[in-house]
Amino acid sequence: MDTASLAFTAVFCALLVLGLLTRFALTSRQIRHVARHREHVPAPFDATVPLDAHRKAADYTIAKARFGLLGTAIVTVTFLPALTATVLRLTERRAASS
Predict the structure, then answer these.
(1) For the whole model, what pTM was predicted?
(2) How many structural domains are present in the chain?
């Protein structure tokens, strides 16, 4: 593998992992915020939104965020090895044709 391909792959993988970690951090923060405020309807909506509906919306938001994190993790874990294998295969072809 030549150094340019190796450097590109390393940078791309590092950015992919950094993006994944950032998404996990922000989504975890959102989940904590929603869970912390699950029991209180915001003042502007207090008269129109019942507490049960607010709790249901909070539970849905938390479940959707967790499912999104799971999906992101699965895609990243499957994409990273596929990307690395593709770059290796292309580099080997290029080296063999030289």
Answers:
(1) 0.75
(2) 1
